[in-house]
Amino acid sequence: MKAVQTAITASHTVSPQEELWNSFRQGSRDAFARIYQEQVDNLYHYGVHLCGDGELVRDCLQELFHDLWQSREHLAAQLLNIRYYLLSSLRRRLLRTLERDRRFRAETTEIPFDFELIPSREHAIIQDEKVQEQVKQLHAALNALPRRQREAIYLRFFHELSYQEVADMMSMKVDSVYNIISKAISVLKKTLPPAVLLLLLQPGK
Amino acid sequence: MQQYHLYTARDFALDEYFQEWVLRPDVKNTYYWDTWLKLHPEKKNAVDTAIQLVRSIHFRDYQMTAAQKEQLWDNIWENIAADDMTGLSPAPAPVASRLRIFTWKYAAAVLLFVFLGTLWLFMRTQPFRTVTASVATQPGQTKRLLLPDSSEVLLNAGSRLLYTQKEPLVREVWLDGEAWFHVKHTKDNRSFIVHTYDHLSVEVLGTRFNVNNFGNKIAVVLQEGSIKLNITEQQDQHVTQLYLRPGEMLRYDKTDGEYSKSRTDAEKVTAWTHGQLVMDEYTVADAIQFMQQVFDRHVTVKDPRVLRYSVSGSMPIIYNADTMLMQFEKAFNVRFNKRDETNHVGEN
User: Fold this and answer.
1) pLDDT tens for residues B27-81?
2) ipTM for the predicted complex
3) Pick from B56, B167, B200: which is nearest to A16 by CB?
4) Domain region containing A25
5) Where is the RNA polymerase sigma factor 70 region 4 type domain (chain A) (predicted)?
6) The CATH number of the domain where A29 resides is what?
7) In chain A, how many domains are there?
8) Is residue B25 part of a domain?
């Protein structure tokens, strides 16, 4: 029990992320290149899920990284999560651009959200047709959730943002994020009977 | 304290800390959940199910090609260079002539950036995977380990070391029990951190030292080089930094957070690493503590006054509890009571 309690208080020194961020702010091009290299795939992934237009996402990313470099001296020194910062910045830019474009297009054009859930690789290798069918149903059920909810699930499970960060980014309450994820877990649990779960158990964890 | 023992699979799957362990395991959360599961074996099914629930959430993949990524990076730098250019010429010349004047200079600069950037990408694209390794020793057993950064660790009996490398160049371990470290100095002065699951961590560049994190006390002894200790004060969470010089020892009490520095014979403390027990005013109480730490064997003496008997000298450490106990009995000329052989049932 003791170890359980003390594990959480293990002491904390300056994290590598903070170090990277600080040397970037001081003008290190290496640090900038590293941030780009570490984050760009995730940002692109999110961007395409959000708007479905790879070219638009690349344009926004170019603008984002350009502005990031130019404003490096004015950025916050204490940054807890670089990924969160960049994701929310990309989100704002994309939504702004889409909003602007919409004025030139038909009024009815909706912002296309995606966040489509697909079976994981472990699911794909299962031969059993019955199980395959269940997995298919499961994802259909998840994809039937409203887009905004899928985005919250996506941000939590794909980008590993904390509940608080997801809430901040999507301007909702932490409780709502918790409820959305709770709903998704329920869907999963209902559709995936224990037998299927056992089949999916991987060795090694 | 979370009421995890009341959790169902669904509750686990919803718990942020649990998700973090499944999605991004590191030494801290792995240690936490491994330890928790050991204490609550009846929850294994619920936890397994929850792991699967969390893992079954997947999203369609979208990726840029390597060429697109490179192109994007080039565009970013081109724009930055273009900004610098306008910054340098407050009265912008007409586009055509400006291009002619500045092109060669900035083209060279851009090319250099592109080159450096590409070099970076090449150096960075080697896939890096989070390494989380855990090594434990049974009572009466020691292990010698070589970490990926070629630092050497000798793990004493009944101890556990978790090693993680979340990012390249970061060296961090979590220690439960006792270990002797020989940390290799890296060219870029990367520090090596030993965490103790308590308010104390040891930070070094390259050196030899011993950490004993057994029971209620932590003792850090330095053989050579220098080390920094980060101690989080229990009252105000303020971090105190202390430095040790060779031959100095820091004792830290986990129960009240008190600590003190003293001089000691480092060779004596680390003699166990070459199978020797060096005894200098070594008491029966010390021997009892030794039996407990190394063999998880709880022995007692009838007369508490005997606890203060002491001897000086040295003896080989035999990794067999009965033989070792016999050696102690001979050295002190006392008899120990081996009262509860069954004591370590339930430990594993």
Assistant:
1) 788 888 888 888 898 888 888 888 878 877 777 778 888 888 888 998 888 888 8
2) 0.75
3) B167
4) 14-104
5) 137-184
6) 1.10.1740.10
7) 2
8) yes
